[in-house]
Amino acid sequence: MLTSMRQLVLASLTVFPLVTTAASSSIFVSPKKDFAFALNVPDDSSSSDLFFSLAFTIPPSWVAVGLGASTMGGNPLVLMAYPSASGHNVTISPRRCYGHSEPVYDSEIDVKALPGTGLFNDTTYVFNGVCSNCRSWSRDGKIDISSTAQEMVYAMGPSADTRSDNPRESVKVHSSYGSFAMDLVHATGTGGVPVIPASENVTSVGAVQRLTKTGYADKKAILHAVFMILAFVGIWPFGILVLRVGGSVRWHAINQVVAFGLVLIGAILGFVISTSYNRSKKFNTPHQIIGILVFIFVIAQLVLGFLHHRIYKKTQQPTKIAPIHVWLGRLVILLGIVNGFTGFPLALSPGYDFALLGVVSFVLLSFLAILAVGTVFKKVMKKSKQSEPEATGYDLEPWRGAQPEVQPSAGYIVRDPPTPTRLGVPPQGARQFV
């Protein structure tokens, strides 16, 4: 990592040599030295410019600095950078942050690229630029150039590859973030692009680390995926086996209610997640549209199942609801599984589709095998109950066999055992012998 940082600063110096007339600056260097941000405030009273240099090594997919706030919830002005589509340049994306969600591109923030921007030594991206209106951006949003401890935040994306020329590109949630305080008085001087000193032991100058967090992940998104896959790929298909093979209506109902609970929680999480990313805030992606339809079908399926069972208990006869319930259930499971394959690309993690395909294939083959074996077993058991096997071998209790028929003899009356009859009506089938 130190080698990468050395390459980073050397790349900057190849364009902007460090001399006595270099622009004044304050510099922040991340704890792992994989990201640096330097700022210069021109001392020209007629200027509202801010010069800056933003550099990062290849592993982070994107980096961002938030001016004027100690947290993302403080609505800072964000300077985000990521590799261009070609991979040989840097795309700068000035954005506005509104709470704890993905910052939104703001075309009114005027940022221009300056010489020294690009990829250096195939390891380090550098963006040198100037912003003409980054000192204030809303009624309350501003930086105080007279402050010796101006609050700022930073964030870095995961190692996933993000390349785009689009400044509105939606990105994955940060994997690490933090905050720092920067001395803007120290950064004030002759206007120009600030330079990061060329040293393996480079450290922050005029900036103090406040907070640092690493290993962050969007747990809501993870739970959403787990709950939905568990319900549509696991629990609901298992509920079919419980009814078809096990023949248990009660456990089938319990199973389906549990699956519905997971889908309900997953749907709520999905709604919350959608409001956190620019690519999903409009609820117009295939994954979201199919998801809404599936959730409506799930509620209808639950209601139809309840009505069918209630009517069947009263009449003990098949209902017209039954086939609708069966086929709607199959459609719900199919759409739910298909929608899983559209969810991972929306989360910018299309590689997980291969893992999902493996899980679905295994569950499908297991389901068909269990269903086939269960069907054959039920048929065998049914035939065995319908046929009585002939007695063979030694009879241990011969007295329990058929009694010999008594032959009638003269002078005796032999009758069948009496059966209940109406008064004055002889029993049916009575026999008399004289």
Automatic annotation (TrEMBL):
Keywords: Electron transport, Membrane, Signal, Transmembrane, Transmembrane helix, Transport
Compartmental location: Membrane
Top-level taxonomy: Eukaryota, Fungi, Dikarya, Ascomycota, Pezizomycotina
Location of the region described as Disordered in the Swiss-Prot/TrEMBL record: 409-434
Predominant location: membrane
Pfam family, one: Cytochrom_B561
Keyword Transmembrane helix in annotation: yes
SMART domains per the UniProt record, alphabetical: B561 (SM00665), DoH (SM00664)
Signal peptide: 1-24
GO cellular component assignments: membrane
Protein name: Cytochrome b561 domain-containing protein
Record Gene3D superfamilies: 1.20.120.1770, Cellobiose dehydrogenase, cytochrome domain
Source organism of the structure: Xylaria hypoxylon
Chain ranges of the Cytochrome b561 domain: 184-381
InterPro entries, alphabetized: Cellobiose_DH-like_cyt, Cyt_b561/ferric_Rdtase_TM, DOMON_domain
Sequence intervals crossing the membrane: 221-245, 257-277, 289-307, 327-348, 354-377
Domain of life of the organism encoding this protein: Eukaryota
Entry keyword annotation includes S-adenosyl-L-methionine: no
